[in-house]
Amino acid sequence: MRHNQLGKGGPFVSELGLGTMTFGAETDEAEAHRQLDAFAAAGGTFVDTADVYADGESESIVGRWLASRKPDNIMLATKARFRPPGGSSGASRRGIVKALDGSLRRLGVDAIDVFYVHGWDPDAALPDTLATLDAVVAAGKVHNIGWSNTTGWQLQRILDTTRHADLVQPVVFQPQYNLLDRVVEWELLPLCLEQGLAVCPWSPLGGGWLTGKYRPDSQPTGATRLGEDPARGVEAYHKRNKERVWRIIDAVRSVADQSGSWMGEVALRWLLTRPGVSSALVGARTVEQLQQSLTATELTLTADQLDRLTTVSAPGVPDYPYGMLERACGMTIWQELGTAAADGR
User: Fold this and answer.
1) Which residues, listed in sequence order, are joined to residue 75 by a DSSP beta bridge?
2) Among 185, 183, 188, 187, which residue's Cα sits nearest to residue 173?
3) What is the CATH number of the domain that holds 88?
4) Would you give the end-to-end CA distance of the chain in angstroms?
5) Whole-model pTM?
6) What is the set of active-site residues?
7) Are 214 and 226 in contact (CB under 8 A)?
8) Do the Cβ atoms of 311 and 254 come closer than 8 Å?
9) How many domains does the chain have?
10) Whose CA is closest to 118, among 129, 102, 109, 127?
């Protein structure tokens, strides 16, 4: 498995990271440990969890695996912000410190390799949040900082504030990004390229949609994410049961058939070719599902296949300001992304 650096001066991590949101919820500990074993055996080194996953149990499961296997090459990422009331919710100074101490205890480690703020907190003073992150890095409890789930202006404000105050800079941004949802390409992805942040997408398979498991004429049932809760989150069935989504899925299926691969491999390989993407987080309920995703590291798609996927999944251009600028400047946002990547920005 290839390894890429996170941003400017961050660690080198595997191009696929293991997302552990299912651990302790949809995946029991024995199966979770089998997943971790399979991931490490495939050359995976980047394990991503959060204090809110299964109310901390995901971190505990990962911690017990680390204690039993004692690997020396695993890069750990966890997050703070969304613990329930009574826990360590929020990105305040108190919230960050309590969340980090809890994560270190559950994971059984002295330091976190990448510590994310899981989302923007309008109730926390941003300078206090950033100063706290700087302090935990200085104390040796965290090696690198990341952010997730912000708008473009919020991420720019974070970067500006850290620079003006000479605080530790984030090295990575973690957004939702996949063939079905490319909104990050309007502002967030160009910003990350311009500022030298790595991009590590979550939901690279669109919550299972890009594996071809769902159909336009029947609501999901059974032991799948949407079978158990069709209204679940950003991948809710009623939100994505649309003509554009099925066109994209049909194109993924066609490319998979043409290349003799699994649809999920195709979707992952497309994402890993996008400018700025250093590592994509794959999650699974079972080790068999995970092993399917891991084969994406061996797949090669032709330029024509990648172009077909990019074209069919294009989200359309809002007329202002993007459409107006495209007409005036003669360059699309996707050309701009390619130019930024080629320039090393």
Assistant:
1) 46
2) 188
3) 3.20.20.100
4) 25
5) 0.92
6) 53
7) yes
8) no
9) 1
10) 129
